[in-house]
Amino acid sequence: MIGANICAVEERRPYRILLDTDVDTDDLFALLYILKLNRSYFDLQAVTINTNAWTDAGHAVNQVYDILYMMGRDDISVGVGGEGGILDDGTILANVGGYHPIIEQGNGTSGYCRYRQAIPVGSGGKLDRDTNYGFRKSFLPQGRRKYTPLRQPTAQQVMVDKISAGPITVFVIGANTNFAVFLMSNPHLKKNVEHIYIMGGGVRSKNPTGCCPENSNSSCQPQQCGDRGNIFTDYTSNPYAEFNMFGDPFAAYQVIHSGIPVTLVPLDATNTIPISSNFFEEFEKNQNTYEAQYCFKALKMARDTWFDDQFFTSYFMWDSFLSGVATSIMLNENIVDGENEFAEMEYMNITVITSNEPYGASDGSNPFFDGIKKLKFGLMRNGVHSGHVQTGLRDPFCIGKNCKDGYTEEVKGREGVRVLVAVRAKPNRDRNSVLNREYFRRFLDVLNRQRQSGKFNFTTQFPHYREVFYRPDMKGKRLGRNVVFDMDMSAGDFLALFYLLKVPVERINLKAILVSPTGWANAATIDIIYDLLHMMGRDDIPVGLGNVFALNQSDPIFSPVGDCKYNKAIPQGSGGFLDSDTLYGLARHLPRSPRRYTAENSVKFGAPRDTDHPELRQPRAMEIWESVINSLESGSKVTVLTNGPLTNVAQIFLSDKKLSSPIQEILIVGGHIKSHKTDKGNVINIPSNEYAELNMFLDPLAAKTVFDSGHNITLIPLNIQRKVSKFRKLLDSLYLTKKTPEALFARRLLSRLQRLKETHPRYQHMDVFLGEILGAVILAGDESFLKMSYGVRKIKVLATGVESEDGGIINLDENKGNLVKVLENVDPLAYYNTFANQLGAEKQSAVIGSFEEQRRIWSSPQN
Ligand SMILES: [Ca+2]
Ligand SMILES: [Ca+2]
């Protein structure tokens, strides 16, 4: 087939392609497939990242950079994020980051997770996508390109550049937000878009999963069987939607109704190409390139961690199938009706449902209409966008399968758009093959081609690569106070961690780190902790990962999904998750640890089956805590320092009393005790909440649980943190100290935070992170040198569920409340010097300074 059309193709220039992707596992297959095609036919110009779906922007963008580096394609532009907003009057500012569906997009990157909450956050969800099950860091080489704050090209910028440069074809394999925003703000550039290929939706699809076996008894209740959609986390509300469309139904509507020719590869077609066991086995036998290996590793881990034994009937080729179908249609350009090698096509008249009837009923669910006088985007009062919009999981209006948001419904007349639809995957033309789909064969063939293949992976890149675990020599040392550090991986927490690792072990014995991914960073960021520990020669310190939801915020019916009531305050973009997840672009300068998050798991810990390396599994926070408690000599105690939301510590108190009784003291960095009305808290983006401090607000119920425990608590509240948040002063001290790798890294991070604060309004809150270091310094510091003084208060933390109050602290009189020790004074200069001097100390300094140093070591022979 290809041969027959080559003549036609050679007369034209290569197709320029822009790929918009949410960097899910399947998207990696799609991207690598495109990269392997003949470049004189297909010229991938840019990858733009969809930031409101299955991955978090900071992790997604660096994974894309690394894949392109492995494939020798650093020439391909990568766009992610942006800080632009949409004003109330409908004006779309430049560089909208696409972190939110258009209906929720205001002026900023924080906001509610209306649709995104249908996506699991931890294992089996974003955590596994952000890390590609752990293979991203174990397999992909790391090139020079990476995310850097304010220098990273935005998705909109890249779209404008590439689309204005000439005719282009756009592939959308995530939610449609980026491309819809582009089309709405650049109508004059539509003419350059030759065609749009979208993976998403389900038109006449019938979900093949969740069905009762033919011979089953009458007690079997079919689940999603026969539904149009695939939102497996909430079929009862919306059985019609497919994830990509559901991610932003209004955006999908804009793209499909743009007037540009659209080809859809919906569930209708992808449901007919489930990963078969034969395909899986063939793939296992055919891994002749690094890219094939990378894809197979992910696919195998997806199978090995699948929640039931139905993987081969529930996991499909989605986005990768789009790559095949789209490029095959493009090669056959002289043939009408989208004829191609891999899928049967049909024209259908469709639309995308964005709201539910009755239209015009203002019930508080639709931000486009509720309380709005002048409608934006030319919307009409009783139009198709004016009905009830699904508000989230288990929306009462939707229960009983009433909602169709995101459904690509067939319609008659003007409301529909004639779209070419892939309806089913074609069988393999070679009837003797064990692969039953034509695309299976081609996919393996393309991925295994030696032409345009990856040059190396992370370990083969270096002739002298070797994995080293660093452990300190503790022989003959009398170890100091037992400390467990609980952090949410905000920037200051890493500086605090450096400090704790520099205090002589005779004074502080850091036993373990617990991670609360309920604050400033996403769970996958745990790898930065591993890398930092590696740098400091402390691969012996265990790291436990806590729950991904604040207390009572996970869904009662299906706990991998849940609400974002509190962490919606954290911006998704600049100054928020994007920066935390990359440590403001600096994480990649840390040496790479042999330890990292991995989806490896074992039956012993509740997994459905053992993976190949269950011994590597990421321990949970509670396990690590338990092992710390069990390792204590009788009578010894442990101090907990918390630098984030109190989710983990609350879990400890809610479990067996034996696990909390060895706690000597809890040092809490956080909480705000207001002394007068103008003494405000720091909960950004939630204007109604004036007096809370973020660590308390992010999990108020956990905070209340901990304060009500009656344990020995020392509070390092916001007002004292604010006294020590002068970047200039701390940097001055750091410039005077010895240049250990850790002092240099701290200097680099702090000066970057300072510079960002000075240059861009989105970075105004940077001093929050400076105050965070205080807890670590207090814990180990010299009380008289630091001029520390404490008061005692009777206080209570509010956890009422009322947004304006939650996380607030009230003072109580003598007889009520919990007695808490509160840090009231510290000498700022002494504090800055203590921190700087400790980081500059020669003892307990880094054993390997940076990734650069690691590269050098691996590039030359060892002695
Ligand atoms: Ca995708
Ligand atoms: Ca923190």
UniProtKB/TrEMBL annotation:
InterPro entries: Inosine/uridine_hydrolase_dom, Ribo_hydro-like. It holds the Pfam family IU_nuc_hydro. One of its GO terms (molecular function) is hydrolase activity, hydrolyzing N-glycosyl compounds. Residues 17-356, 483-828 form the Inosine/uridine-preferring nucleoside hydrolase domain. It comes from the Eukaryota. Coiled coil: none annotated. PANTHER family: INOSINE-URIDINE PREFERRING NUCLEOSIDE HYDROLASE FAMILY PROTEIN (PTHR46692), NUCLEOSIDE HYDROLASE 3-RELATED (PTHR46692:SF1). Belongs to the IUNH family. This is Inosine/uridine-preferring nucleoside hydrolase domain-containing protein. It comes from Buddleja alternifolia.
